[in-house]
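Reading a protein record of the kind used here takes little practice once its layout is understood. The fold follows as a row of integers, each naming the local backbone shape at the matching residue. With these conventions in mind, the following record can be read line by line:

_____
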Amino acid sequence: MTKPTMEEIVSLSKRRGFVFQSSEIYGGLAGFYDYGPLGVELVNNLKSLWWQACVRDNDNIFGVDGSIIQNPLLWQASGHIAGFSDPMVEDTVTHKRYRADQLAGVDTNDLKELAELLRDKKSPEGNKLGEPRQFNMMMQTWVGPVEDDAAKVYLRPETAGSIFTNFLNVKDTMRAKLPFGIAQIGKAFRNEISPRDFIFRVRELEQMEMQYFISASDQDEAYERWRDFAWRFLTERCGIKEDSLSWHEHGPNERAHYAKAAHDIYFDYPQGPKELWGTHNRTDFDLLNHARVSGKDLSYIDESSGERFTPNVIESSVGVGRLLLAVLTEAYDRDTIDKEERVVLRLKPSLAPYKVAVSPLLKNKPELVSFAREVYADLKKEFGMVMWDDNGNIGKRYRRQDEIGTPYCITIDFESLENKSVTIRDRDSTKQSRFQLDKLVETLRPKFLQ
């Protein structure tokens, strides 16, 4: 199967209602996107699967939903105000700004190294470049009627902040004992210098993140456990093939100064292998800093030994948009059926926006339409997302459903009126089978658990 181009993914997303450019009628806004009717269903399915696997399938993982705007001292303690930056360089003529490391073709934030590498390079417009400098990516706003420094706050650049500040609240209210985790799904905002690659690098993003609190002696075992969790979730729950994934271990120059270890799962996107999911050993950096700045005791007392210590943290984090892009890329396929090329999204049935499409063979035959409507209503009660489709001939309906990833199409024909049977057509194989109506739900239900 040939990997689709980014242009093909963008075209499908717009044409079939997965992703739209935000405020498109006004020309859009770089780095911001809206999910359409099918996109929001696919995203919700991904988030639901992650929440089930991370939170509900574990006895010691608890969920929170923190505010997007927090006390700015939080970002001081986390280091974001001082160090959440990317290297930037400016075209001296147009004053357009670019990521210096991308223009230099290296992965580094070292300004001296970047200045040397860019000394003889031009901007994409062919003009001289200025000196590289750091650009803080936090988006700021003000709380209250006066826009001064005392009222300045930030849109959160990551979701982990409110997890750490709620460590005591969760520990106390849930009577949680180490090891335990706190999970969250939520929006974050990063003022990217040059958002690009569709929904891969954006300025408003959504993260699925879990921070796992442990003693120092358990960190290595926990780290490998959550690396394994990430890999298995992508391959087993999302249907991504292992040969589309690879591990990237952060070297000493890539890791944050406080991190003991960091591994990213790379997915082979249309633009090449890029980071999808990160697993990081953050040591005790976060709770120590929040304790220092807030003045609150964030230590933990082990009941059996009486030892008091600051927990270490293993982080597991994946971006929703990047996961959506990976799933669409992996599922996108082209083949030929009856000498006609089709685009088909081979999504896992559990992820598909619509589980089933129901069609009368002919929409101008009232008896077929009436029977099909009864089948549609019954399946909708059972499976929720069921599509009614009577537009065009049956072949065009099948192609349309293939392109949006609907796993099964149910067709009501004249034989259905005679013996209460229906035709089920499989998206991937295009094979059609006949089933009695009273066996339909029990036939389909196991398929959506896959």
